[in-house]
Amino acid sequence: MTVLVTRGRPGADRTAAALRDIGINPIVSPVLDVNFRARIDTDLSDVQAIAFTSANGVRAWAARRPERDFPVFAVAKATAEAARGIGFVDVQAAGGNVISLAEMIARQLMPEDGEILHVRGVHTAGDLAGDLEKAGFKVRNAMGYGTVSVDTLGEQAIAAIISGGPIRVLIHSARGAKSFLDLMTKFGLMRWCGSMSIYGLSENAVKPLQGCAFACVKFAASADEKALLSLLGPDAELAQARDPS
User: Fold this and answer.
1) Among 147, 176, 204, which residue terminates a domain?
2) Which side of the chain, N or C, has fewer Cβ within a 10 Å radius?
3) Residue 203: other Cβ atoms inside 10 A
4) How far is residue 224's CA from residue 226's CA, in Å, rounded to a whole number?
């Protein structure tokens, strides 16, 4: 099974490790570079909770701010786990998209109790601030990182694509999907897309690839790595049975 991991590092390395644990040796070819800001300067007065819409936001906070005593609302399970991993205790996970995150915050918090601090990237899916402001909340943004598209796919990835053999491509974000599609088009690789199956972390992640001539475009039932890898099917399950580590 040929599996292509397209997310940016360091996340790509964790996904690759999870694949190796189930007996699959992937091709890692990030389509985005993640650049963390040198500092996160933000005033926490009047903040009642922190919202993280990606694990990269958590990583940015981990190295740049010491505060861990705020309630955290995370967009999905993986982001919540990352927040707990750096020392946050009161952490809740939404259903994997910004709309479900805003709804969860609005159900559990009151606007008059303080602002929501959104730790985010320069580009982000959805409009958390807009959704929360409709519910009466004030949102304070803290930019922790940015992502930029890479110039090319890796040589191993290109070689696998032009071989014409079946490839499973893992997509973790809509921005990553757009960058992957741009690179495929730029280098004339779309002629081989019929042999490529797309597996996304969420429905939103694969939207830029819908309507293209890929063999299939699927997304995980929940926005977490285990659900994403389960899309690889019985070959992955057999590998996991052989190597249950």
Assistant:
1) 147
2) C
3) 16
4) 6
